[in-house]
Structure formats: C-alpha cells, structure tokens
Structures
1.
Amino acid sequence: MAAGYETTSTALAYATYELARHPEVLHKLQAEIDQLPLDNDDMSNEETKKYLDYDIVAQMNYMDMFVSEVLRMYPIANTVIQRRASEDTVVQGIQIKKGTLVQADVYSVHYDRELWGPEDPYVFFPERHQTKRHPMAYLPFGAGPRHCIGMRFALIEMKILLVRLLREYSILPGEHLESKFNIRERAVITPEEVWVKLVKRSD
Ligand code: HEM
C-alpha cells in the first residue's frame, strides 16, 4: 500500500504545491492540456476514455518535464534506495566491506549544479529536462535491476490525474501554503500539509 498509493499521492501533493507557487508553469501545463484532442462527451464511454487517457499522456512534452521536475526536487523515496554489498569491494577508492549497507544520497545528486545546471537546481524549472543529463543524475525511482517496479504506472496515474484536474481547475496558493508545508520523513518524505485553492476555470 505504501509503495503503490502513498508515493503517487505524495508526489501529486508536491505537484500542486509547485503549481500554486508558479502560475507561469500552471498556464503552460493548462495550455498543453487544452490542446489535447479530447471530446469531453466521449468520457461517458469507458473504452474511449481508457484509450484517450493513455494516448494523451504519452504525447505531452511539457507535462513530462513538469512531473520529472517535481520528482527531481522531491525524491520522496530516497530512503529506500539501499544496497548491501555481497562481497568486499572498492568504489572510487572507498573500501566497502561485505555486508555493508550503502544508502544513495539522492538529494545531493538531484541538486548538483554540475549535473543539473546551468539553471539553479534549487529553482523549479521544468525546461531543464530538455537537456540530456548523465544517466545516473535522475534517481527518483532508483536504478538497476531493483528499481521501482511501479514507475510507469505511477507516471501515467499522476499525469492522467493532472490532466483531469487542470482541465477544470486552476490552482492558487492557499492561506498557509508555506507555513504548513514542513517536509517530514515518514514512510516517504512528505509535506505536512499543502494549502491550495482550486478555482473553477470557467468562473
Ligand atoms: C511517484 C511514485 C513512486 C516513486 C517516486 C517510487 C520510488 C521507488 C524507489 C526509489 C524504489 C527503490 C528503488 C531502488 O532501490 O533502486 C521503489 C521500489 C519499489 N516500488 Fe516504487 N515508487 C513510486 C510508485 C510506485 C507504485 C505506484 C508502485 C506499485 C504499484 C511501486 C512499487 C514498488 C515496488 C514493489 C518496489 C520494490 C522493487 C524491488 O525491490 O524490486 N512504486 N520505488
């Protein structure tokens, strides 16, 4: 349950936080969503709905960069990326004894200026994902044969939710957006509360 639900919902909480803080990002995302060839009347048909949803999210470049940037800045499952050495080894001059537990420091990698510049890695900037990066620079889902098994499902789920939400609503900062945010380490690394306002777009 923690791997399947807590992760995706927490990542979406961070997504709404960043959308509330960056109206220009929200507008770009809504512009991409508004161009999608989706007829809302078709949503009553289950088969059409399934086909359109998958098809939609696969072709959304800005959405992909947006979600990637959310997970770069908030690698919510950093603490589970661990490996135990099965034999004595040396990595970059560091001796690692058999049985040692090694924890990946994903935050340092995701906020590294050389890997993620020239734009400040502490700034939310989806377009940085247009540039090809080092294959190990982006680790929200871990790496190697034991990387997240639910990655593709999680990405599709998040993108579909964002399409449906942002098609109808805009997200504005709520009263306590910053003061209640307070990131905490629980089952995943999560904000305490995300205060946003949903405003119907047709209003
Ligand atoms: C945004 C959403 C998610 C994030 C950021 C995330 C992240 C991670 C990370 C970092 C790992 C450890 C990978 C490693 O050690 O290299 C992992 C493992 C795992 N994840 Fe996810 N995950 C997400 C969603 C999901 C979903 C939706 C499912 C299931 C439907 C899932 C199932 C699993 C499982 C079963 C493992 C263990 C894989 C193994 O040990 O072989 N995850 N995830």
2.
Amino acid sequence: MQRLQQRLHESQWWTPGQLRVAQFRQLKTLLRHAASVVPFYRERLMQAGFRAGMVLDEEAWSRLPVLTRAELQAQGEKLRANVLPARHGRTHEIRTSGSTGQPVRIRSSDLAQTWFRAIGLREALWQGRDFSGRFAIIRKLDRTDEALPPDGDQAPRWGDQSTYPFSTGPAFRLSLMASVRQQADWLLRRDPHYLLTYPSNLAALAGHCRDAGIRPASLRQVLSIAELLPPETRALVREVWGVPIADVYSCKEIGYLALQCPLHEDRFHVQSETVLLEVVDEAGRLCAPGEVGRVVATPLFNFAMPLLRYAIGDYAQFGEACSCGRGLPVLARVQGRVRNMMIGPDGARYWPSFGSRRFRELAPVRQHQFVQKSFERLEARFTVERPLTPEEEQALRAHIQTKLPIPFQIDFVYLEEIPVSAAGKLENFMSEVAPPPAA
Ligand SMILES: [Zn+2]
C-alpha cells in the first residue's frame, strides 16, 4: 500500500501526455490478455480489426464498440477470463444490486481490489483527513441484521491494516434501516469527525437536523458516495452543520472513477492510473471539453473480467486543465443517468433541479420525488408532516414551475413513504419517457 501511494503521489503531477502513455501501455497488456483468454473479446476484438502486434493508438482504440449494460448482463459468463495471471491473486464476485432492478455480476481480482483501496486512501489523503478522528458510516449494508438502530456497531479502526497501514481512530456504522430521527440521535451520541453516507439520505438527515437544531459538535467533513450530489445538498450541509462535503464519483462495476479535487469543490479528477475514462458522443467519438456525452470507462487492472469501453449509463463533460496542477483529467460535471434525464418534446435533454432547498420554507414536506410521465405531465410525489393547505400547494407549484426548463402540468401525489430503488437510493427525478434512440 505504501508503495502504491508513493506511485500515486508522483503520477498525479504527470502531464496528460505522460499519463496517456502509461495508460496505453497498461491497455495493451489488458487487450492482449482479453484477446487470448476472454471468449467475448476474442470475437469482438477480431471483428473490430484488432491484430496481435498492431499499433494501439487512440484512433485504433476508438474503433472498439462500446460495451453496454445489456451486453454485460447477457454475456456475463463469456466476459470472464479463463485464466488469470498469477500475480493478480484470487478472484472475487461483486454483485451490483442494480438501481433499475437488474443485477449484474462482476468478477474482480485481488490486484484490482488493492488498487481500489489505494484510490480510497488517496481520497482521504487528498482531503487532508485526520486519521485519528472518529469515522461514522450510514449506509445500506449487505446483511439486514447488521448495525441496526439505535446503536449500530463499531470497530476500533477505520478499516483493515492493508487499507490503512497505520493506526486510526474508531469507526461507527449504522444501517440505513434507521429512521432519520434515529440517525440524528445516533450522530449526536457518536459525535464523529467524519460522516459518510448517500446524498439522498444526507439531504433528509441535514433537513431534519436543521428543523431540530441538531449539530454534531465535532463534525468536520461529510463524504458523499454512490449517487450524484445535488449542489443544493452541499449548500444545505454547509448551512446546517457548517462543514464541506468531499464527493467521489464511482460505480459498483468499476470502483472509483474520479475524486473531488482537493482544492476545488466543483470538479473531479479522473483516476487515470486505474481507469481510462472517455466521454463520447452518440457516434462513439470523443467529445471536446464542455461537450456533454456518455461516460465510457475501462478499468485497467481488472483482468478477471475485462470491461473495455463500458458505458456506465451516466452523462458528463470534461473541463479544462485544473489550476491545482494535477495532470489527471478534469470532469467538470457529471449529469447523471439516462433515466434521470428530462426529455423535451424536441428531444432536448435536461438534468433538472427543482429548487428543493426552498421547499421547507413553503410547506412542511419531508421528501420529494418527481417523475416525468409524458412531455406535458410531471408527477410530484411528496411525504408531508401534515396535509398541505391549498395556499401551500399553490406556492410550491409556482416555485417548482420557475425551476423547470420546459413547462409542465404538475400533479401532486402524497405518499406515506417514497420507495427507494433496489440499491437503497432515493432518486429525486426519473423520467418514464423513452430517450431518443441514439442515446
Ligand atoms: Zn485540481
């Protein structure tokens, strides 16, 4: 781990050109492996015109078709390597719960997991975290009988010795099965320096704490994972608890894709040492900085199940080089999933925000979710503390209307609880309108 950190410490300052050379060197090894021991790629690489000994440059690479999630689901077995180089260690299975309800099985290796942990530690170092502090985690856990409220569970360290090869403070865990009120009570009792959770849970928790006047005294920073972090949640957390958020961009199939810049909240650095991340247009060509396209990623160290140009399902855009001096490419914005995209009648795409920070000023709503039902109709789902008055409904509707990129008829629906996805996430916006075919 120390050796990997030393390498990462140096390579973050490499120029984009140096990073590219190192990536393509690793890519070549990965391709040779995939072509010889992965049945799916033996075929696909041959069809795409890849030959042993050919020059692998960006032009050649861009001829390789994107791997879709549907292909990954259908071809899972054929994507597994028949043999793994000995120094990659054992293989592991990672199950993604699949936020759309369709799980995917990924094979990973000891080596890929070691790199994963190394990037995790880099994140903590970038953020200048104090390892002697108390670390609190509220998340969905694999087992439903783990870390239950009111007390959750605890460990003497943040993680194992191979991830943190030095002493750390204690870690506390609480299952996401805890209610928001239970979470707030737990937070006060544990009084952590750091809190890790999902943005949707964070928004509910911080909202509750604002109303109840709760501030965990020692809290220094919040870590946000697994979902897109709305800017309003960042603002809410700063307002209520007075602390910043460190956000990471990751996906279960691949792991870390990009980390928030240590100096700038509004941008991410791609973790180019372990993943080749591309933003491509509908035709598969690379987008220019500022141009929104599909995120296509190739993990460079997972030889157990190579994913070459895998379309994660997000849209994003690259930004200009960062003033912090790191050569790692900048993702200026991650726009989210296809199903979280609003579609206009002319096919235009939007990732809307609904001005939810103001909701509580207008009406006693707890949670919200918007669903685009058609080009004309938007369903607004709320959980509320008490039935809203007609005036409150009117104020809320008028406020939401001003935030929408295109006009909608808004239908209010009140629910006991807003259902979360299979991955335990509350999605604030979903579209039931099919995107244009090319997307
Ligand atoms: Zn930077």
